Amino acid sequence: MRLTIGIHDSVDAVFPPEELRDVLSTVDADVSIVSSDELGDHDALVTLAYDDRFLSAGLEWIHSIQAGVDRFPFETLEADGIALTNSTGIHGDTVGETVLGYMLSFARGLHRYRDRQRDREWTKQPWNVPFSLSNSSVCVVGLGTLGCGVATRAAAIGMDVVGVKRTPTPVDGVETVYPSGRLESAISDVRFVVLTVPLTDDTRGLIGEAELAAMGPNSVLVNVARGPVVDEGALINALETDAIGGAALDVFETEPLPSDSPLWDAENVIVTPHVAAATEAYYRRIAALVEENAIRYAADDALTNRVV
Prior knowledge:
Strand content: 15-25%
Strand order of the largest sheet: 8-7-6-9-10-11-12
CATH architecture of the largest domain: 3-Layer(aba) Sandwich
Helix content: 25-40%
Distance between the termini: 24 Å
Order of helices and strands: EHEEEHEHHEHEEHEHEHEEH
């Protein structure tokens, strides 16, 4: 029978579902846009969101348009025989460039000048505040696709790059790779700490009071992983007491970030709305993964990027 693929309307938060449907028109499958209220009868579903109604829709395969899949119930999907694939491997360049932008903003004070522009305020930073990224240091925590994308770009502009991963094997562009158990040593005395780890039981609350204290008053925390990887209360306290120098945050414990969060008004914080991986080509990258797996599905071969 011909493969049927539903595109869940939740992807509209990232790109128009019609764009993905149209580019998948060359795939040997029937492709349509669906909602949770009208899932129809499909073999596969491409989605941003998770809904418990997916479990009773007769699906055999769900594809997440994000690399992170912590919102999906792995054990339940496995018990129901539903394969789960993700979009890891496609965001290294976009996230790497976003992180480079954050670091450049802090080095050159661009975010502060942008804030002052609104008030037509012609005020320079003190002479000893701006610095160059060349020969500045960065620790990338998590050296998968995202982390390597950051490390490659940081090394290319002359930064001193160290990293942390579970198995401390060498990584191109990273001078020293620390094991996870030496996280505090890795992040001490570096200018930037960049988080690119997935959210798991091991990484939830990975950065808390002790880790923030280890960073030091000139360090900047960059989180493009998941919000709960950081103890947000501890981070806010560290920022308010100048225990660290600042933060660039694309992800938060609660999204959208609540309007009463003190992070909005902090001069030494850059807030972006979970857009580090955004690109006009996003839907085409998803289409390439879905097309490859549609071929594998039809041939009864192992799916690429399979999580469950």
